[in-house]
Structure formats: C-alpha cells, structure tokens
Amino acid sequence: MQFFNKTAPIGIFDSGIGGLTVAKRIISMLPNENIIYFGDTARVPYGSKSNTTVIEYAIQDAQFLINKNVKLIIVACNTASSVALESLQKKYDIPVIGMIEPGAKLALDKTKNRRIGVIGTYSTINNKAYSEQLKELDSEITVFEKACPLFVPIAEEGWLDHEATKLVAKEYLQDFIDADVDTLILGCTHYPLLSEIIQNIMGEKVTLIDSGFAASHQVEDYLKGRGVRNDSVQIGTHHFYVSDLPDKFKSMAERFLGSEVKHIEKIDVETLITH
Amino acid sequence: MQFFNKTAPIGIFDSGIGGLTVAKRIISMLPNENIIYFGDTARVPYGSKSNTTVIEYAIQDAQFLINKNVKLIIVACNTASSVALESLQKKYDIPVIGMIEPGAKLALDKTKNRRIGVIGTYSTINNKAYSEQLKELDSEITVFEKACPLFVPIAEEGWLDHEATKLVAKEYLQDFIDADVDTLILGCTHYPLLSEIIQNIMGEKVTLIDSGFAASHQVEDYLKGRGVRNDSVQIGTHHFYVSDLPDKFKSMAERFLGSEVKHIEKIDVETLITH
Predict the structure, then answer these.
(1) B200 vs B166: CA distance, rounded Å
(2) For A14-61, what is each residue's pLDDT tens digit?
(3) Could you give the ipTM of this predicted complex?
(4) Do B220 and B203 sit in the same domain of this protein?
(5) How do residues B22-50 score in pLDDT, each as one tens digit?
(6) Chain A: closest CA distance from residue B52 (Å)
(7) Do B202 and B112 belong to one domain?
(8) Residues A97, A19: Cα–Cα separation, whole Å
(9) B164–A157 CB contact, under 8 Å
(10) What is the count of residue pairs from A and B with beta carbons less than 8 Å apart?
(11) Quick check: is A4 in a domain?
(12) Are B110 and B190 within one domain?
C-alpha cells in the first residue's frame, strides 16, 4: 500500500454525468478535499455494453485518475461498480470504492420489515447487483427489483417536478408499494435527482437509500481511519474531465451540483486507451 | 456501377432498433424483397459520439451489408444519415439512401404555409441536418427545430398510449403549435411509434412526415427505375443481425414490426472492425 499526501485528490469516475450526484455528496461531506472527476461521455452509456467492455473502460478511466495521483477512487456508476469493481481493486493499490456494497449495507441497516426494493438501469437490475449483495449479507432478506429506464433521460432533461415525471414514477413504483417494501435503493446515480418525487409517491414511511451518500460515508471513514484526510482549512479544488461534449456536460453538471463548474477539460478517448 | 441480381437483398442498418420502423415500411411496400437488417446494439447510441466515430462505425456497418451482397443500402438512422451519408456514397458503388433528403423533400411537398417543424435527437437537431437540407432545397422556408430526448426511451418502453407520454409530448410540441407549423418532420426513426399521440396533440391539420416512409418510396423508385425490383411472387426473407443483446432486440423488434422475428443472429463488433 502506497502512502499518499493528505492533499492528494479523491478520484471519481462515471460513464457520464450521473456520478455528479456522488461528487456532490463528497463535496458537501468533505469540503476541503480536492476532487478530480472523470465522465466518460464519449462512451456513455456503459449499461448496454458487455461486461468485458465495461471492465476494459473502467480500467482506462481508473488509470486516468491514477495518473493524476489520486489517493482513492470512487466508482460513481452502478454498472461499472457491479461489473468492474473487483478487477479494479485487484489492479490498484489504492482503495477503490463502489456503489453497491455501501448502498446494500445502508439498506439492511434501515429496513425493519426486511423487504427491500431496488430500482436501477436495465443493466444493474439484470446483473442482480444489489439483490445478490443483499442476500450475501443477509440470506433472509426479501428483495424486489425493477428497471426504470425513463428516469435517467428525465433527470437529464431536468424535469424534476414535472407532472409527466410524477406519472412515470407512479407507473414504475406502484409494484414496490404493493410489495410493501419499507426501504428503496436508488440503484443509479441519476436517481437522487428525482428523490423528492419518488419519496412523495412511496410515502414518508419508506426510506430511500442514496448509494452515493452511503459510499461517501465509507470514503470519509477510510480517510479518517488511515489518517489521510485533507486537513487544509481551505475549500478544495474540483477538476472535471470528460471524453466528449464538455459544454453539454458543464450545463448539466451545474444543474446536478447546484453550483458553478469552473475547471472542465475534454480529453481524447485515444489518450485513455494508450495510457 | 455493378449489376445485381434482382433477388439480392436490400440492406438496412441502424445504430439499434429505431431503424425497424423503416424496415417495416419497406416490408409493407416491397413485400417480396429480401431484407438484411443490421442493428449496432453494442455501440448504440450514435447520437452522442463524434462525427469521426460515427463515420467509422457507419462504414463498418455498411461493409457488413456489402459482404452479404445487398443491392442497395438504407441508412435507417438519422444521426448516421446526417453525418456519414456522403462518405458511404463515395465509398460504395451501390446506392446508399439516407433519411434526411427524402424526409425534407416530402415535407416541402406537403407544407402550404412554408413553416416546417423538425423533432429529433440532440445530435440530429444540433447538426441542423434537416434545417440545412430544407433551406438548400428552398431558401424561403421557415424551420423550427427541437430535440425531444425522452421520445426514444418512451418508445422503447412501449408506452405508446400512456398518460405520461401525452404529457411529455405536450411539453415538447407546444412550441410547434405556437409557431404555427403545418408540417412536422419526425426526424428520428423511433418517433413513428408515437405518431398517434403526436398527431393528436398537433391536430389533424398538421402533416407528420415519416422520413422512413419517404425513404422507402425513394427505394421503390430506384429499384423500378433500374429494373432491379425483385419480381418473385413469394414473400421475401428477413434476416436480422445485431452486435449485442439479441434477445432484447427480438422482443423490441416484434413490438416495432408487429410480427414475429424468426431469423436473428448476433455478430461480434470485432468482426465488423476487421472485415
């Protein structure tokens, strides 16, 4: 295990912009940490690609962050977390934290009736990423899963309080109400943007689990435990890199983060492949 | 120009499944033609990729069809049509027919008040594919354009008559009603699936232009003109190839085509690249 400067940045990558909800959690929880975010916007989405391809891309994304001397990597993409986390953890000495395990653990901590729902992209649901993790941690748990493919484009359109969004959410979520889950995992990093509508439909008694929030706590624990928290009194710097369409990313990022994005740079996919 | 057997198949390619609405038009208009359809489901969507990449992929897709000895190629994808058509036409001896020109010509033929609307993906709208083509054909025309990114995932979900779909369509289309267009180009091959809802919102006086329908007429005219219509009295064979997830494609294809898909085969992306 390498020893890192406390001021080394935290690396975050995602197939695109969804991981920004995780970055937002990290920024709010650990404001003095420096952050490097990479969004692979040229190759988004990962969810429709084969596992082999997703692992290959995830390694390239992680290597880009490694080359920036990050002290820890967050895989802020549920697809990449479910498919590539183990490969990344084997390959690199620094800690690599995904979305699935922290989200599953927090859900198990919160549920009282042992009935947990999971919503995500087709890929995450078909991979049974959360259900297998949940059952590995607690074989008695009952899990209900459903892909909600419209939630990502709706979040990207910014229709966070639109009547159409409410109807879409009702259509997707009724099964979970019928199944009497008391905990619902938002198994896609875009979904926290829709948490208000989802909460309204599910009712106040249902706990929503934001995996990015859970992962951020794991990051904080790790950094404290190893004594590598940035102890600067200044607000950290936040650098964003994308593989395509930086202007589109910037406008969406500002909506996702709720603040101005100053440092954004486009890098070529070729650079990822050859480094 | 090569001379082809009349019974040689018509080749159709798309980045995924949207092009099936074009295939459906061809099947219905030219039932005795043999068809080979390729959907590049491993690399979908093309709309978020750079022009260089889309051209590269389009050439690989077309080459796959050429290797199957097709007599004509239809680029059943608005993104690939707007970006790669010229490269394909330069490279190959057989005719290559895209979506943009036939759709634009039909729209100009139908409009009376010379106010035309265009809806499509971000890529097609940002490329100004239709507006430039329309203005090239008629510099006096007034064009209104808007990206409707939710229409593709809604069509893929099969929510063709859902209340949520109506609200989404109202949100997107109000600007075109306000702009008093009398003709609306469905500039994405998924959109004809939503034509009923779109027509209801726009009103009966507005003509919807299905570019795939327009392109099919161009294909028929070409085949007749060259004397290469298949004159078999039998129904043609329809073979479908995809680069990933054939089962998902099959179920969606049957919804798009409204009939059973018998011959479907997965081919590796590597095969596309090296042939």
Answers:
(1) 9
(2) 999 999 999 999 999 999 999 999 999 988 888 877 788 899 999 999
(3) 0.86
(4) no
(5) 999 999 999 999 999 999 998 888 887 77
(6) 12
(7) yes
(8) 13
(9) no
(10) 54
(11) no
(12) yes
